[in-house]
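Record 1 of the preview.
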Amino acid sequence: MPDLLLELFCEEIPARMQAAAADALRKLVTDALVERGLVYEGAKAFVTPRRLALAVHGLPAHQPDTHEERKGPRVGAPDGAIQGFLKAAGLASIDQASIESDPKKGEFYVARIHKHGRTTPEVIAEIVPEIVRSFPWPKSMRWGKASVNPGALRWVRPLQSIVCTFGPETEEPEVVPFEIDGLKSGDVTRGHRFLAPAEIRVRRLDDWMTKLEAAFVVADRERRKDIILNDAKDLALAQGLELVEDAGLLEEICGLVEWPVVLMGSFEEGFLDVPDEVIRATIRANQKCFVLKNPSTGRLANRFILVSNLRASDDGKAIIAGNERVIRARLSDAKFFWETDKRTNATVPLDERLAKFGNVTFHEKLGSQLERIQRIAALAETLAPLVGANPALARQAALYAKSDLRTEVVGEFPEVQGLMGRYYARLEGLPEEIAAAAEEHYKPQGPADTVPTAPVSVAVALADKLDTLVGFWAIDEKPTGSKDPYALRRAALGVVRLVLENGLTVKLAEFVEPDLLTFFADRLKVHLRESGARHDLVDAVFALPGQDDLLLVVKRVEALGRFLGTQDGKTLLAGTKRAANILRIEEKKDGVAYEGGVDMVLLHEPEERALAEAIAHLGPQIEAALEREDFEAAMALIATLRAPVDAFFDKVTVNAEDKALRANRLRLLADIRAITRAIADFDRIEG
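->
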C-alpha cells in the first residue's frame, strides 16, 4: 500500500518545541486522514533543529466510495420543495430520484446517492495546508513581503520548503501538489546547514533518511540521542571515567544538533575544590556540556563532554578550546562565589544572616521571608513530636534551612538551593540533622522525587509546605483550572507523600481550614489513582466527619476496596444503595428525615426483626473495631449484614399501608444507612 512522506523545512525549530511539534504533526495529520476514511497502518514523526517531518505507512490509494439514502418530499409537493431536495441531493432532475410508498404518508421521493471516493493525494493536498496554517506553535512569526497581510502564514521560523510525496514502494512516488502562501510542495530538501547545504531530491522515507544521512543529518531524534549517549560513554571509558548522565540535558542537546559529534574537553584540577554540584550546574547551564566522574572516588573529574553540530577539519580542537575558555571563566566565578560564601558563613552569625531576610518580601500579603522562616520554625517545633523529631533541633533546622538563599553561589545558580545549605551547615559544624534538613526540606518536588525520612527533615519539610498552603489559602490565592503559580498542588501532594510514605499520624484539621482539607482530599485521590485505587472510595471515606488523618483514610480506603471486591461487599453495597434511594424519595415526599429509633413492638415480620437485632448487635462491635483502627475486622462485621438485608428486601414491603408500620420500616432503613456510614458513605460509591 502507498506511503506518505511530508517534510516542513525551516530556518530553525527551538529545541524546547521540537518534541511537542512532532507529536502534534503526527496527530493532526493522521486524525484528519482517518476522519476522511483513510485508515493507515503506522505513522512516525521526525524532528531536527531545521525540519519537522512525518511518514505515514499503509494508506489506501483513494477514499472508499460512499452510499447515502436521502428522503425527500412527498410526490406532488410544491416545486420549491422539489428544487430544494434536488439541490441538496445533487440531482439534476427529479427523474433521478426513486419513489417509495408509506401506508401512512403516501408516496415520497428518495435519492440514492453514490459518491466515488477521492484519491488520497487529493485529500492530502486539502488537509496539509490547513494543518500548516493552524499549527499550534507556542510562538510563531510572519516574514517577508507577505507579512503585512494579516492572513499571511505564521510559522515558528520562516518556512523554506515543503516535501510531500505519495506512492507505493514498487513505483516512483508522485509529488502531492499544493501551495501555501506561494510556497509550492515538491520533492527537494537540504542537508546540513554547513556540511551539505545543496538541494537533495528525495522520494520516500527510506530514500529521504539515507540521503539526509549522507548529507550529515540524522533525522531520527531517538537515534541522535543514542549516538550522543553512547559516544559520550565511550569517550569517558577511554579515559577511565564515567559519564554523569543527564536526561534533560540530553533532550536539549539532541534538539540543537543534526549531526552530533561528541568531543572531550578539560579544566584545571584546582576548580575541583568547588562542590561537584556547582561545577555541574556551571558547565550545564553555560555550555550545555556533560560532566564526568572518577569511579574510584565518586567525585567529578576535570573533564567534560561537549556535542558539536559539525565534524571540523581539525578534529574539533578549536571547538574544544573555545568551550574550555568559557568554562574556565565560569568556573573561576563559581570558585570566587564559593570562597566568598565560606568566609561569610565563618564570620557572620546566623542571626545576622537571618536578619537580611527581613528586607526580602515573600508575598505582599504574607510578609517578609524572615516572617515566613519564623512561622515555619514554630510549626516545625509543633510537628516534631508527631514525626519523632527533637522539637528544639527541628526549630533550629527550620531557622537555618533557607539561609543559603542569601549566598553568592545560590544567587548565581538557584537550582542548587538546599543542596548548598547542606554544604554550608557542615562547614559551620552544625549537627548532620540540620545539614540534611537544609537540603531535604524542599522535597518531594515532584512525583519522581524522593521523600525525606529523617525525622528533623520531615518536620521542616511538612512545616514548609503547610505554611505555604495555609498562607495562600488565607489570602484566597488558590489554584484555578490549569493555573497554579505558587505550585500549591505540588505542595499538597508533597504533604500527602510525606505523611503516607513515613507512616505518620497527623491530624491535618489541627493545622488547616476545612476547605483546604478538601484540597488535600483531591490531591490524595490523584496520588491513590496512580497506584490503582478508586477515587470514589476516597470520596466515600472523606465524606465521614473527622477524616483528617491521611494515613487512616488510606488504610480505610484499602480495606473498603478489598471488601467491595467480595461478593458480600457487592451485594451489601446494592442493598445499602437501595435503602438510601428509598429513604431519599420518601424523606423528600414526607418532608421529614428518618433518623432511626426503631420501635421493636412494630416489627411484625421475622425478617425485619432479624435485621433490627443484627444492626443493634453489630453497632458496638463495629465502633470498637474502628476505634482500634482494625478496618479489616470492621469490614468483616459489616459483611454479616448481607443476609438479613437481602432477606428484608425480599420479604418485607417498606411502604406498608399502615402509616406507623411504614414509618418504623423507614427508620430501619435509616439504621442501615447509619451503620454503613460508620465505615464510609456508601451513597458515594459507584456501582
